[in-house]
Amino acid sequence: MPNTMLALTFDSAREDWKSSRGLQKETIAVPRLDDPDGADRSNVIVKVRYSGFCGSDRGIWTRKAFGDMILGSLADEHKTKRVVGHEFMGEIVEVGAAVPAETNSSAPNAVPGGYKPGLMVSTESHVICGVCYQCVHGDNHVCARDKIIGISRDGCFAEYIKMPSKSLWPTNLDKIRPEIAAIQEPFGNAVHACQVVDLKGKTVAIVGCGTIGMFAILIARGMGAKQIIGIDVEPKHLELAKTLGCDVVLQPEKTTSDFASDPHLREKIRELTDGVGVDVALEMAGFNTSINNAIKSVRRGGHVILFGVKNGNAVVEDIHRVVMDGIQLHGVVGRRIFATWEITRKLMEDKSNGIQDAMWKVILGAGNDTVVDIRTWEFDDFERRIAAHPKLVIKFAG
């Protein structure tokens, strides 16, 4: 391996979080397995091939999200620089001494003979402790001590990354194209959200048709939803949502409040569902208005899946209706490790469902202006692409 690499970083010594934006491309040291008798016995070095640029990364770019986690973790590590990014696929190039023994087991992410150089992998972005109450009791996706790569530990917007082998997910590039393999992690978010309630035969509203919402459209259709209604404020997103399989798309009207739902949207949904409301609403945007639009959209006894991330407080309209109509609110984060990954792999590798093809051709536009080579990456050009496309992929190696 070389001694240095290209990476996209935030550096608190270089820029103030509140007054800056974006990431900077720079040359930094390649990570090493330099603790052979300690933690690095279980770590690997991965040569990154492709990385996905996520909605969370947009929040970091605009300084609207994760500042407290990034700055707090840097302070804990006595560092100023964070390599961002948490979605990737790449090739293992070096392993710690304990890795083959650890991964040659019955673990869900095991491979025969263990993880060795040459193996293609993706990763679970939440590095879990394995010993807290949640981990021990089967809820490791909400580990109390988890570290998120690219946020609370160095991430994958770099040519190489050091990862614990327990977080890796083997990936067959004969069945999943590499650009799509790099975004298995966010697709898994949508899989997890769509698993909370059995969607077969249900009417479903996707409130927020950004990237994860678009994934949810594909999954809900694949899981047998009877009717899918896409809701978003962006006409471009609604156009893509219709192409991906929504039966109807609706654009909510702006309200005079920063939390109030749109009564006209509720009436349109009632008209589409014989006056009942949808069985399930997936809230994928995180805005207070969209949370209330989701709650107002569901029928009595319906389910609201809350996935959109929002810092701070939210106002729920008419909590009396939530209780008296028996509306169930479900908070969803991340992926179940590794149960969600198993389903993700099956959905992606099954070419007959058209999911992988739609992800590449519709969401990623067949790579047209959506795949950016790190060697030619420029700040202004990348910012333009962020504004123009729902999803971008950064190429680090062929």
Which properties best describe this structure?
single chain, seven-stranded mixed β-sheet, alpha/beta, Rossmann fold, Quinone Oxidoreductase, Chain A, domain 1, 14 helices, 398 residues, 2 domains
Question: Can you walk me through this structure?
Answer:
The chain folds into 2 domains: 4-186 and 336-395, Quinone Oxidoreductase, Chain A, domain 1, CATH 3.90.180; 197-331, NAD(P)-binding Rossmann-like Domain (Rossmann fold). The protein has 14 helices and 18 strands. It has helices spanning 55-61, 67-77, 99-103, 133-136, 178-181, 184-195, 211-222, 235-244, 263-272, 288-297, 319-324, 339-349, 355-363, 379-388, and strands at residues 4-11, 24-29, 43-53, 81-83, 87-95, 120-123, 126-127, 147-148, 160-164, 168-170, 203-207, 227-231, 248-250, 278-283, 298-306, 328-331, 371-373, 392-395. The strands form 4 sheets. Strands 3, 5, 6, 9, 10, 17 and 18 form a 7-stranded mixed β-sheet that branches. It is globular.
Short characterization:
The chain is an alpha/beta fold and 398 residues long.
Total number of β-strand segments?
A: 18
The major sheet is characterized as: 7 strands, mixed
Mean pLDDT comes to 95
Distance between the termini: 16 Å
CATH fold-level name of the largest domain: Quinone Oxidoreductase, Chain A, domain 1
Number of H- or I-type helical stretches: 14
Instruction: Please bin the fraction of helical residues.
Output: 25-40%
